[in-house]
Specification:
8 helices, alpha+beta, Aminopeptidase, about 250 residues, 8-stranded mixed β-sheet, 2 domains
């Protein structure tokens, strides 16, 4: 599952090393600058020196994305022993795409998706400048160089870009990436001035409708467990599928 998700958020540099997937993108987003370990416990520990060296050579902290559950407890303990600090416990949530009685995927009823006056919803194959500005204003970290790196990460995977536009202003965005079996929903962002107005629900309904059109069985998303949005997603029909956390190498003294 982690490898499938990795394919929706491609790093500038990716390298396989003894079963590990090493990713680097100049420090822009943890997902694109962290290592995915193999499932084989023996290769997990034997690959640690090469993993740490990969990030040292690039002037980045070594970060490991550690899946929850059996098979990774020993790795987590070893990273803790080496001083790697825990960060950002993350939930992977899933919601099935509804089906009709005939077994066809179907999105929400059209009347449930009808935007209010002055509001329209668009879906496109590429992020428009207004889409990117809205997402980056909510979730972005860093200056122009970081924004250019983030733009490369987005464009590396074919996706669908959802926008809610009110009175000509893009107030909400999301990204839907088809994978075998599910749609990966990411970059869900609502401008501060448009919150509590149903924009998030409109994005979710549009994502479900688009997933149904593409024949996808479910939506999945990743959200930091401490983010209040996690509870909102679960109220909106998502349930926990899995999870992970990061282990981050501390800065050298």
């Amino acid at each position: 599952m982690a490898r499938t998700w990795a394919g929706t958020w491609r790093a500038d540099e990716e390298r396989e090393a003894d079963g590990w997937l090493l990713r680097a993108s100049g420090g822009v987003t943890k997902r694109a600058n962290s290592a995915l370990p193999p499932g084989d416990a023996g290769r997990q520990e034997s690959g640690l020196p090469a993993m740490a060296d990969f990030y040292r050579q690039r002037g980045l902290p070594a970060i490991v994305q550690v899946p929850d559950g059996p098979g990774f407890e020993r790795l987590d303990s070893e990273l803790a022993r080496r001083g790697y600090l825990p960060a950002d416990p993350t939930l992977v949530l899933r919601r099935p795409v509804p089906t009709s009685r005939a077994g066809r995927r179907r999105g929400p009823r059209p009347e449930a998706m009808r935007p209010g006056p002055g509001t329209q919803v668009t879906v496109s194959d590429a992020p428009a400048p207004a889409w990117f500005r809205t997402w980056w204003s909510v979730d972005g970290r860093g200056g122009d160089d970081a924004a250019r790196t983030a733009s490369r990460i987005l464009s590396a995977t074919r996706s669908r870009y959802l926008s809610v536009v009110t009175d000509g202003v893009t107030v909400g965005v999301a990204r839907l990436t088809p994978t075998p079996g599910f749609g990966a929903l990411a970059c869900v962002a609502v401008a501060a001035e448009a919150r509590q107005r149903g924009v998030g629900r409109l994005l979710l309904d549009t994502a479900l409708a688009e997933a149904a059109r593409l024949g996808l069985g479910s939506l999945q998303l990743q959200v930091i467990a401490a983010n209040p949005a996690a509870a909102w997603y679960q109220r909106a029909g998502f349930s926990r599928l899995s999870g992970y956390h990061y282990r981050v190498q501390p800065a050298a003294a």
